[in-house]
Request: fold
Amino acid sequence: MHAFDEDVETLSRAVLDYTLRRSRMNPVPLDGPRTQAELDEVAGQTITKDGLGGTAALDLFTRELAPACISTDHPRYLSFIPCAPTEASALFDLVVGASSIYGGSWLEGAGAVHAENAALRWISDLVGLPDEAGGVFVPGGTIGNLSALVAARHAARREGGTPPARWKVAGTTQAHSSIKSACDIMDVDFVGVPVDEDGRLTGANLRATLESTGTDGLFAVVATAGTTNFGIVDDLASVAEVCAELGVWFHVDGAYGGAGLAAPSIRHRYDGIERCDSFIVDPHKWLFAPFDCCALIYRDPQQARAAHTQKAGYLDVLTEAAEFNPSDYSVGLTRRARGLPFWFSLATHGTDAYTAAIERTLEVTRYAAAQIEKRDYLELLREPDTSVVVFRRVGWTPQQYQRWSDRLLLANLAFVVPTTHEGETVTRFAIVNPNTSEADISTILDTMA
Reply:
């Protein structure tokens, strides 16, 4: 299908020109949302019988729709977990889209799978997993966690014995919401373990909880390497010890914080992670890749393959082959080669550049914590483990936090939203963009005086 008799060369150049302009914007526009009514008025009916034409559709997107999206790569986008892709990864995402690569099998996408596996190997080495470790890039941490837990339950089932009345997963209330969601999808129970005084899952608390609840049906324990709200890394070594004692699958959710493995200054916080049975990290968070990309890695990929390989006559040519097929290692069959932009950026810049960029964000994080402690109108809730800083504005109500946040966005100054901790409204910085500077932090904190 051609572009409605439009000159394809002209449209191609327009799309590439926009891509280059956007990837090189400095400063990046923060922008912000508009109401449904406002967008209806300026965009009108975009899906029509005859089509708008590519140039007109691109112009509409550029003028009206793109500015109604907050730029997650803005250096003062500090809410949720930002996304700050390198220019190399963003540009290569365009190549992946244009190349019509199917990334689910070696037969159809061998070159892409080879490259993705090289990127997965780098992460596996950071974790300390053996040479035979491997996995797949999936859309995000939710699918990554679900796929790992499906593999864990399948492995437990294969051990035989009397099936339990209920299967169970243990974790803390600080675990990402996707863990409980995965339990709901799988119809298994979630066993909540209290955190210690530092907000961490520990082996001692895990053991005490399991002594109370029993271990019948327990097939996995989930620890977190960088919680979303606080960036806390659990006591992985002691949790790994309990899992080994019980013979239970040890899964580590490092969707946000796993990137800290590449930073020598905080690598010690992850001690024990090398004993995990499965691990996830989202390169679209703190590893500078575009949405959407989660690395899911197994100590023993064959256990995952046994759980996830789909069987059908038309798939025999794939499933009976010896080659590595990514779709055998997670929920889902059809897949985009979503790890390629991350691979291209790693190949372009080298891993030392990644270490330097992550360490730079940690420098700014330490600066932010120090600045908060210097200002009498602010209080730091906890020294950061990774690159998340949580703090309160003394005396503010939830409504004041929200008004302050709204003003920052309306002024195109920053995107910093409130959060809650133990029923209290506070706020936080998630610093994963190497372009976020000390001056950015000070400017935002000044607005709270």
The first strand starts at residue 134 and ends at 138. The mean pLDDT is 96. Residues 224 and 253 are 5 Å apart (CA to CA).
